[in-house]
Amino acid sequence: MIAIVDYGAGNIKAILNIYKHLNIDVLIAKKPEQLEKANKIILAGVGAFDDSMSRLNKSGMREILDQKVLNNHVPVLGICVGMQMMACSSEEGKEKGLCWFDNSKVIKINEHKLISKPKLPHMGWNNVQPSQHHSIFNQIDKSKGFYFLHSYRFFCDQQYYLGTTYYGTEFPSAVRKDNIFGLQFHPEKSHSNGVNIFKNFSSLQQC
């Protein structure tokens, strides 16, 4: 069962509809006990880092998330701010992140290196170049790319890079540490490529 974490700051209905269309079992988790059944977890996010972390902490699901992800090694997929929350900190706020990636933080995209206007946010379609071969990219058309909407980006050790994107400079748009996956782009807005990402995630084996 895939559980989509509903802490009040994510675009979860679109993800739910995709899995229903694929006939894959999915539930929306609003309480800790609803995460108990999950063998995969999706952590989506929209908005500011501090607000999202505050909402997650107040939801009562933070402890069970850490247990499922760090102790039970359940695969988890963070999307946009959901990915950024996996870092230890963010320049966008003062709240502590989940810190699931070592030496990680969220930093603002350097506007001085951007040519296109409006410079921020980075909005629209862009390509993702896989940094390593992984099944989560199966059946992905690299020429179509994915949909992005963000002004801050993930910063972590290069060993965790799963895919990179160029916007003024190269940054990790997909990361992985064992059972923990993060995507800066929005697969739920990325048409067939996004559907395949969700399908591939549902097929991952527990690490």
Could you provide a short overview of the structure?
The chain is α/β, with parallel strands linked by helices and 207 residues long. It has helices at residues 12-21, 32-35, 49-59, 62-71, 81-84, 191-202, and strands spanning 2-5, 26-29, 40-45, 76-80, 105-108, 122-126, 129-130, 146-150, 152-155, 161-167, 169-177, 180-183. Strand 11 (169-177) and strand 12 (180-183) form a beta hairpin.
List key phrases describing it.
207 residues; alpha/beta; Rossmann fold; eight-stranded mixed beta sheet; two-stranded antiparallel sheet; 6 helices
Descriptive overview:
This protein has one domain (2-202): Rossmann fold, CATH 3.40.50.880. The relative contact order is 0.17. It is built from 6 helices and 12 strands. The longest helix has 12 residues, at 191-202. The protein is globular. The model has no long low-confidence stretch (mean pLDDT 95). With 207 residues, the chain is an alpha/beta fold. Strand 11 (169-177) and strand 12 (180-183) form a beta hairpin. The strands form 3 sheets. The protein has an 8-stranded mixed β-sheet. Strands 5-9 form a two-stranded antiparallel sheet.
